[in-house]
Amino acid sequence: MSTQREIEKIPQTRNSVNEITSPQQPGEERQNRLEMIAQGHEFDSVIHDSVKREECVLEIKNFNLWYGEKQALFNVNMPVPKGQVTALVGPSGCGKSTLLRCVNRMNDLIDTVRIQGDIVLNGDSICDAGVDVIELRKRMGMVFQKPNPFPMSIFENVVYPLRIDGERNRGVLEGVCEHSLKGAAIWDEVKDRLHESGLSLSGGQQQRLCIARAIASEPEVLLLDEPCSALDPIATSKIEDLIRELRGEYSILIVTHNMQQASRISDYTAFMYLGRLVEFGPTVDIFTNPKLTETNAYVTGRFG
Ligand SMILES: Nc1ncnc2c1ncn2[C@@H]1O[C@H](COP(=O)(O)OP(=O)(O)OP(=O)(O)O)[C@@H](O)[C@H]1O
């Protein structure tokens, strides 16, 4: 869908973003904020005060990213609250996955990527050239759209992060395996078949196995990139319940296309558009009383 078509569908109401920053003068034409973004105008993200008051696990600061000549992220400033679920939403191609991948430096794997700005994890800058990326990734758990269990047993899948760290103690490995599978709400289903292949599980079980593997190393942040997009509704509902249960113990940043899912599972929602953070606030406010008309148009399905 072209940007222009998206924009045209958004009603140009008087209750636009411009009313927040300046009163409308008689006869003055209001310009939609998303149209201004598409035209390359500078603008400041709208971040609700309640987000700013939260303790942060991550702080994304003045962050820009280019794929070759093409800029994909523009001056993103975003605190990610600790112990909460934060959803990243926005139309396809707005940069949600790119931003998520920056947090665990997966974009380093792409030769053409260039970044500016910083991301701070619990006080530590993660973008410095001197950062040990392997150590950094141990502080993050990542779960992808498609479940990706390794071709090894359920047990070995879960304890994999400990194995690569050199852990050999059977008791420790068994304890972490059970704790992580329970944490991922799949223990009862697999406790009698831990030595079967992880690939023998259903798609939804495989995804919970991947979440168990992601939490086995007790990460500071759990990054979930559309973790339910390949799952049926029942498996999706189990993963959503699980995300709610993991909240508090883990800080979760999740990319989702599904507005109902974002509203069900997240505490905070960030709306992105064409590489910019547009509005970021408590999910209940973003879905029922956003500050921007454009956010309302997106979350109610009127474009994108
Ligand atoms: N490896 C890459 N090389 C070049 N451009 C890329 C690459 N990955 C993403 N992009 C571009 O960066 C922009 C943001 O893409 P990204 O995948 O982050 O968006 P998204 O919001 O996650 O989209 P979707 O919801 O469709 O997954 C898009 O214009 C995309 O084409």
UniProtKB/TrEMBL annotation:
Keyword Hydrolase: no
Disordered: annotated segments: 1-29
Domain of life: Bacteria
Originating gene: pstB3
Protein known as: Phosphate import ATP-binding protein PstB 3
A biological process from GO: phosphate ion transmembrane transport
InterPro entries to which the protein is assigned, alphabetical: AAA+_ATPase (IPR003593), ABC_transporter-like_ATP-bd (IPR003439), ABC_transporter-like_CS (IPR017871), P-loop_NTPase (IPR027417), PstB-like (IPR005670)
Composition skew (Basic and acidic residues), residue ranges: 1-11
Signal peptide stretch: none
Domain called ABC transporter: residue spans: 58-299
Pfam families according to UniProt: ABC_tran
UniProt keyword Membrane present: yes
Species this protein is from: Blastopirellula retiformator
Extent of Polar residues compositional bias: 12-25
A molecular function (GO) term: ATP binding
GO cellular component term of the entry, any: membrane
Keyword vocabulary terms for this entry: ATP-binding, Cell inner membrane, Cell membrane, Membrane, Nucleotide-binding, Phosphate transport, Translocase, Transport
Record SUPFAM superfamilies: P-loop containing nucleoside triphosphate hydrolases
